[in-house]
Sequence to fold (647 residues):
Amino acid sequence: MSYDYAKYLRKGKLPHIWCAGCSYGIVLKSLIRAIDSLQWDKNDVAIVSGIGCASRLPGYVDFNTLHTTHGRSIAFATGLKLANPKLNVLAMGGDGDMTAIGGNHFIHACRRNLDITIFVFNNNIYGMTGAQYSPTTPKGAWATTSPYGMAENNFNITDLAIGAGATYVARTTAYHVAHCEKTMKEAFLHKGTSVVEIINSCPTGFGRKNKFKTPASMLMWMKDNAVNIEKAKNMSPEELAGKFIIGVLHKVERPEYLETYDATVGLKK
Amino acid sequence: MAKKVEFMMGNHAVAEGALYAGCRFFGGYPITPSTEVAERMAERLPQVGGRFIQMEDEIAAMASVIGASIGGVKALTATSGPGLSLKQENLGYAMLCEIPVVAVDVMRGGPSTGMPTGPSQSDIMCAKWGTHGDHPVIAVTPASVQEQFEETVRAFNLAEKYRCPVIVLTDAIIGQMMEQIEIPEPGELEVIERPKPTCKPEEYLPFDLDKDFVPLAAFGSGYRYHITGLHHNSDGFPTNDPVLHTKNTKRLIERINKNYDDIVKVEEFMIDDAEVLVFAIGVTARSAKHAVVEARNAGIKAGLIRPLTIWPFPEKHLDKILSKNKIKGIVVPEMNLGQMTLEVQRVARGRCEVEGLYSLMLDPILPAEILEKIRRFV
Fold:
């Protein structure tokens, strides 16, 4: 029996704007299943996004949804959470939105450990503006602004989050749908700032010009190169060359920001 | 009962005014000469059940107060020149998305890092046109510590009433100076609370393009809807329709313009028989008032127009005086190189001479300098 997504979709707002072959639709469905499995009241969920293809997701789902300015989702989400701590707040956006223009907010959210969830949809490119290189575009890759190949080094988003102090950091992919749903659910339940990097594919902007002949081949690349962290523990660096690790990369317990703030200042309720 | 009188710094009076108005969130970033607003809020908010956060940058500070307001809490940020520049994109967001917030700009010398501790009035046009696109702006201009308090309360009221951001445009002198202030009793000043929608959630149109005002539902209150900085339809979802784009932009501007009488506050001093006018705001208006009194003592029929609302521009007030009185000239002293003067000239439409008196010297323009200009018209 197929899963009923209708309860969570704003049907009148479909079809979505994403290109044929884009992996965001798959991740959208994982997100809906993850929230549904938590049985959260839709009134208690807020999804905040920035600008870009991924950031259009909130418009399609029936929650409190806030499509903000480029890179600023986390900063809006921070104010929203402090104003109404009962809300389950998800800030989400693409790799450019979250780690280039929004990079400052990203690292400081990780440092603060406010109880919000951050999803980074990493498709290695600025899709909406037409395939410009992002902080996660692989070295040598083609983009309209790296027509001779990407010359810059790139971010490892999960390393960045861990270094900045996030208390839950995981990576999953659009291909691994069950894993994606499970990881999202765990991230939502984690007390403190949780970061999930979701490896995605942009066949139109990235794949087409970077030797991925079909959208499916990009998903197959995820399948072939993702290594679960449990398996990776028994693999040598040589065996892991060219691969990437999925799973929970970092999980620690640290006092959550809002609780700490309220206690520190003796907030009069 | 005797009034509660304190000796207070202007920036602290902004904070106290905000608390009086029901502000329960502050998101800020340190910047001279506004930082005392943040410091006071950091100390005071928890005492009244509110929260303070020092964000990672000016942009985040502006974003956080918009987020808090969407969460249903009255919110304040404070900044100065460079910070006002950085806040502009999100100020525009609040304008288009109709989110009530208050931002204080304690003006210092610009452009760029400029004169961080030097008083100025050079953000008048930045407050109006700093964000891109056509948009409405409300900016209030206090001239004393008492008014720092009262105008901040009024700024919150206007923000809630007209569902828009309001800028408190003050300067480094008014912000940093200590002065006597009478703290209003609770209930003494009007405090407008945010109206709540009464319709069924499924019928809620948060941005109804056919209405001037729709109450803003807080996220989490059971009204699930979408907010976007893209041009949007009545239901809040993006549209590329140029007709709707035009309609909504005009609607947002018009609803401020047509409430001019409620929004625009002007002190008119000795203008009934005035032949020479001085048009000044903030700290400069204090010198101007002094100059007008001295002119009167010298037998010159001078008067002062002192806007406490600079945006929308008090053109109806000015126009009325110019229609009624035989005005020989208007002196516009301002601590910049002529930002208000051009507006006064626009409204005067050649009916009288308009002469600016500009200073970037970081000290207040002196009454004697203004008086000298007044004398030139007689």
